[in-house]
Amino acid sequence: xxxxxxxxxxxxxxxxxxxxxxxxxxxxxxxxxxxxxxxxxxxxxxxxxxxxxxxxxxxxxxxxxxxxxxxxxxxxxxxxxxxxxxxxxxxxxxxxxxxxxxxxxxxxxxxxxxxxxxxxxxxxxxxxxxxxxxxxxxxxxxxxxxxxxxxxxxxxxxxxxxxxxxxxxxxxxxxxxxxxxxxxxxxxxxxxxxxxxxxxxxxxxxxxxxxxxxxxxxxxxxxxxxxxxxxxxxxxxxxxxxxxxxxxxxxxxxxxxxxxxxxxxxxxxxxxxxxxxxxxxxxxxxxxxxxxxxxxxxxxxxxxxxxxxxxxxxxxxxxxxxx
Length: 323
Prior knowledge:
Elements: H1 14-47, H2 64-92, E1 100-107, E2 110-115, E3 120-122, E4 124-128, E5 133-139, E6 144-148, E7 153-157, E8 163-167, E9 173-179, E10 191-197, H3 199-208, H4 214-224, E11 248-251, E12 254-258, H5 261-269, H6 290-302
Parallel strand pairs: 1-5, 4-10
Antiparallel strand pairs: 1-2, 2-3, 5-8, 6-7, 6-9, 9-10, 11-12
């Protein structure tokens, strides 16, 4: 364990203060009623104790006001906890639209992180101060859990699906990153750090490690895997991929779905799970690394109107005109 780690780490994100406020409110209410009830039990136990064996206690009459009070007050307190906690939870699970995207792949026993600019990191995540950061995470093997105590955020990372997490650092520094789900023999060694930099310094860090964006790598993979044979402007064998992300996709014999990252991942690895209406299930399944799936998804998300690749870009000669 890092000697700098503390049981109650200081706040370092915009969400941390809100999470702490709800936590200490609930803790304060629980402590207040614990002390109140304990004090009253002792007080009444002493005051109304039997002073002799012959003493007969007086009959007790119920109090409607008392019954209403100790029913309504706890109810209102519980509802206030629910309302406040729900509002904070909704904010935690709703990333800002302008959040910076980072993809995370967890595996025994390390974190692999990819920035949209193509920068890759192992067990370390560089982020800018004052900018929301959204993590899209999956696991290559077992269940892990991405946990940054100073940010007050924790999210399970599951195999064969995506989970998301977001935060916004409020100050520069190095913050602990743990796996909070037992994931095997070396679970305790699956640690890392989040490094928050001032925006200018972060941009310098990005520029120093820029060697092709995720979308560029996905484009290369798109041609390498021969996806271009069907997904091109000239063919009608597969749907066009431009402007597909977050669009409604009509399915064969099923209700339409939204083409989010989960749908795109499933369509790449198990293309026959959801067949697009009007097309045949001719796409073969692919065995890809999670990093390659991430690159393909980034490429698909980057395609704007009219940007569906052409087979000619693959290097094939254009079709000859008939003589």
